[in-house]
Amino acid sequence: MSDEVEIINYELDPDPETAAELVKPKLDKISPTMCMAKWLWTSVHLTNGTTNSCFLPPIHKIEVENITNNPKGLHNTPQKKEQRQMMLDGEQPDGCSYCWNIEKMDRSFNSDRHYRSSEPWAQAGWDDVLEKGADGDIEPRFMEVNFNHACNLACSYCSPHLSSKWAEDIEQNGPYDTIVPHNSIDYFKQIGQYPIPNREHNPYVEAFWEWWPELYPKLQNFRMTGGEPLMDKNTFRVLDYVIDNGRPDLEMAVTTNASVPDKLWDKFVDKVSFISEYNKLKRFRAFVSVDGWGDQAEYMRHGLDFDRMWNNVNNYLTRVDEGLVTFIVTFNMLSLPSIKKLLEGILELQRIHNVTKSRRDADGNIVVYGHHKVFIDTPMLRYPLWQSLQLTPESHWHYADEALEFMKANIDKHRDSRWVGFKPHQIERFDRSIEFMKQGFDTDEQREEAEENFVRFFDDHDRRRDTSILDTFPEFSEQYHEWKDKYNV
């Protein structure tokens, strides 16, 4: 990489805001709308042949003819190439409207394109982007894939194209009785997002493995999602490939519910433990999805065995010396009553598993430093609206405020806190979610539709799954009855 683009010293661990500020002038030198993620970041849903670059733009179809003789077409689609050219020309692709809206409010604001473009994987491929331009086929440096939608959970906010358990529900009982019927399989088939059945040939998975030997050496971050990836043989095929072809500069991750049968969990931990012990990867991280504590967490993520999940996380952290866990909390209205309890549990895991180490510097002085193993991320749920934070009654805001104060009271102060606590950017992200919650909906019509759908959806949910939202979430009993009477449902 040339000196001109080697702009961030990651050994100094700059915070995201500083890194984004450093990368801004370099992006602007190319164009005022440039974003490295359009070239170097990809999410590929091999289940149904769709893709996007960055979490924010909508996914689009990968046409089979575009990968028949060129597996790189899994990422380098005609639509992405068109949008890359727009960015090089200083134009704004519609799919990236989230960033344009942020920057429209204030040009000095950092949007996601600045954060993404400043990350190490983006820096590693910068020269390649400039060389390939809009039309060249490029290997991404950050890649996320899901091989199929097999899953043992049916989370309340998920859907049948992402979970086989959800698909079973809809196939047996039809779509949910919301104002507009929810999670219709026919709808997902109509828009081309329903998975190819496991028993059928999948040209997208085939193209992935054809591309893999060329793709693997250039990746900086590789993440497997689902469904539940530990229920898929391709996940273990990737881990076996790493064991045979180590990449000490590659970061790899799996997003899991950590509530799979013991046999699968032990197989997974055994392989990751070997990878860690023999330094086959730079870092391996388990992203563990959980949105609350105890029976409330189990309700939101139907089929979850909370105690098994918690024990499995402890097992992984104990057996994998360098293993990392990030709890992914899809922060939604039903998270609120138990969110502080979950934060308390995560803090306790940090006390047990985060490590304080020491070494001698060049002058022989002892330097004490920390090794974090347990992290948290709290992306906020936006859809479906009837479970969004925006629906939260003001009387329940205190749950979020109390959780935020708990995080602030337990901030990670490195040596002073023995590397236990919540990092400033984690607290800031949580605080932004609270602001989003308190803004509410843009219109009364949106709010009223969400209120009615809350009752409609969870009544149907409880009937199908033999659950009870009133027993599990007594905190929302008053709102439930108010909305049920209000809309006569």
What distinguishing features does this structure have?
489 residues, nine-stranded mixed sheet, two-stranded antiparallel ribbon, 13 strands, 13% strand
Question: Could you explain the architecture of this structure?
Answer:
With 489 residues, the chain is of the alpha/beta class. 44% of the residues lie in helices and 13% in strands. The chain has 20 helices and 13 strands. The strands form 3 sheets. The chain has a 9-stranded mixed sheet with strand order 3-2-1-4-6-7-8-10-13. Strands 5-9 form a two-stranded antiparallel sheet.
Quickly describe the structure.
With 489 residues, this protein is of the alpha/beta class. It has helices at 16-30, 37-40, 78-88, 97-105, 112-118, 120-124, 126-132, 164-173, 185-190, 203-215, 233-244, 262-277, 294-300, 306-319, 339-353, 397-409, 424-439, 444-465, 469-472, 477-487; strands at 41-45, 50-52, 60-61, 142-146, 154-155, 221-225, 247-256, 281-289, 301-302, 324-328, 355-360, 366-371, 374-377. The protein has 20 helices and 13 strands.
